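INFO worker-7 received task bundle
INFO bundle size: 2
INFO processing item 0
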Amino acid sequence: MMKRTNSRIISFTCLLLLLGIFAFRQYSSCSQTNRNRSRIDLADTEKINSHKSTESYKRDIRIPPYVFRVLAYIRKYRKAPEGYEGGKEFKNREQKLQEWTESGRKIRYREWDLHPKMERRNRGRERLVTGYDEKAWYTDDHYNTFHEVKTTDE
């Protein structure tokens, strides 16, 4: 009798685990799609140019217009737009970004989300990284590659 009860508990636990894995995969695959639908246009930002990026790696990409809008907001107000995460220190552990200015001063970086925070949703792979040297970098693959973001006022 005891063995039968234990095997039922184990079977039930395995079933719950499989359902949890399935639900997580479904959630992960649709979170970026939902995030893309929820993009908002930021008000009160300066005019910017969405030209092709100068990049640090070989991939050829165009930086999306919303990156420039978020950057303009951050530069103007020195904080993340309402509903967005951002402003935390980016440690540059992989040393893919320049560590020192030409004058020998250490560059400190901050990271910013490019989409509004949504409850129970993954933050996605895109980030904006700004440095104390006034340069900005876009990554669409969670810090594997960086593309310099240049605006018309630079």
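INFO item 0 finished
INFO processing item 1
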Amino acid sequence: MNSTDFTATISVNQTPEEAFDAINNVRGWWIDEIEGSSRKLGDEFAVHFADIHYSKQKIVESVPGKRIVWLITESKLNFLEDKKEWDGTKISFEIFTKGDKTQVRFTHVGLVPKIECYRDCSSAWKDYITSSLYKLISTGKGEPTIKKEFGVTSH
């Protein structure tokens, strides 16, 4: 992890195991419809945001209650000059306790200020992590993008 990789941390009252389960429920906090599964090591899933964003993730690390890492194996970010800018980057969720709280540290390894996507992607991630994922862990109901309302089509 590079210190310039985009990172966001949330603090919740739920257990590390509850946070872990919520993170793995990608439909509950990122986008309501995904292709594939996002529950266990080796699972692969893809997300589509209309003709704007497509990415395929593979779960390459999964330690219940502690850590989840996705490797982005394929991307097509049509709003960028380099549409494959996310290829080979990783998304990491570190879960730990601090006092009586559970902390979740999200890091998109490779999403750094010098790349084109940084401004828009870091802003979107911040909203998804600090609002939608936080709410899913805290209340059981996140605010994922609703695919049919977004007008999502396949890549």
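INFO item 1 finished
INFO post-check item 1: The chain has one domain: 6-150.
INFO post-check item 1: Residues 95 and 132 are 17 Å apart (CA to CA).
INFO worker-7 idle
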